Structures are given as C-alpha cells and as structure tokens.
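Let's practice the habit of predicting before peeking. Look at the sequence and jot down your guess about where helices and strands might fall. Then scroll down.
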Amino acid sequence: MIICFSANASILAGIALLGIGTVTVRRTDALAQLPYAVIPIAFGAQQLVEGYLWTILSTESQTTNMLIPIYLLFSHVLWPIFVPLAVLMIEPRTERRKLLAIPMGAGILAGTFFLLALFTKPVSAIIEGRHIVYHLPHRYDAIILTLYIIGTCLTPLLSSYKTIRLFGIVISVALIATWMVYMNWFASVWCFFAAIASGVILGHFSHNRTSDNRNLEAATPASVPGN
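Done guessing? Here is the structure:
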C-alpha cells in the first residue's frame, strides 16, 4: 500500500503547509515578498481540496464533483502564472527581472490555455492505482506542458537567490521523478511532491540566511524585496 498518496497524506500535508506558510508570511518585511511567502499556503489549500476529494472518490467510481475544477484551477492555472510572478516580484536585480519575464510569459500562456479548457471541456477524476487520475481533455498536450514547465520550473532556477534556485531544483527533480514513475497520475503526484517541496521556501525567509543571500542583500537597497 502506498500510504503517501491518500486522503490522510493530502490532509496532513495541507495542514503542515498552512503552518509553514503562516511562518513565511509573518517573516516578510516588504509587500513584494508576500506572493512568494504565500506559496506554501496555496499548496496547503490545494492539498486539503484533494484530501476531501479522496474521500468522495473512495465512495464513487467516478465523479464530476465541483472540487475537481477547483483542484485543477490550482494545479493547471494558478501555478504556471503565480510562481513566475512571485519569483519576479522578489527579484532585486533589474537585468535578471528582464530575463525572468520570458518564462513568465510562457507560464501565462499555459495557465490561460488551461483556464479556457476548464470552462469549455468536461473534467472528471477517478482513483486508479492508488492515485487520482484527473481528466481534462485538450489538444496540444506537449506544447502546453512545455510552456507550463518553463513557467513553473525555469523561473525559480533563474533567480538571483540561492534559496529560490533550490526551490526550482527540488520541484524540477520532483517533476522528472514523477514523469518517470507516475506519468499516468502526473497532475496529482507532481503537485503532491511540489507541495511538500514548497516547504523549502521557509529557508528563504529564515533568519539564518545563507552567505549567498546575505551578499546579495548587502548590495540591494533596503526597500527592495528580499528580506
């Protein structure tokens, strides 16, 4: 039995991430830091939605419950737009901000495409192989998924902050592992791994900052986001 993918796992992860997110939000000292600090809270809410969806799907063979599009709004629409925006807003270097605008554009295209698909296509979910399979029919899978990955994974990898690049590395590794082992359940499993990975965001707002971040902030005006 794979106990790391279940209602209990999603609910426990959701509660833990809400706690982590509360800490990261409290440690912000500039409005521009808030979107990045909120990421664990948003992941926590997403995991709680999926946890409740697990309980519904456990008693029904397949459902079109409203929780499904809510979950897909998180997984398919929010993340490719919000992650690049959060990283861009917290970036202190002008030249790097210009570079980050490119993957952000890719993420916006992917998120907008999925949003339109959610409004125009039927969605459903089913428990299969001890995981949840989400079905959102649309064309151009490879193209849109590429844009999605560019937005969510490449953006943090291009950040000036070592701690944010670490977040990008962790979610990229999670993506590759999910692709190789859990491809049939990609939307559910990668979001679970990425949600857990968002806990590393706490490191960015930790009072024990890395020397890499301290050096960067020393060259940054106090009013610029970055703690």
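How did you do? The two ends are 43 Å apart (CA to CA).
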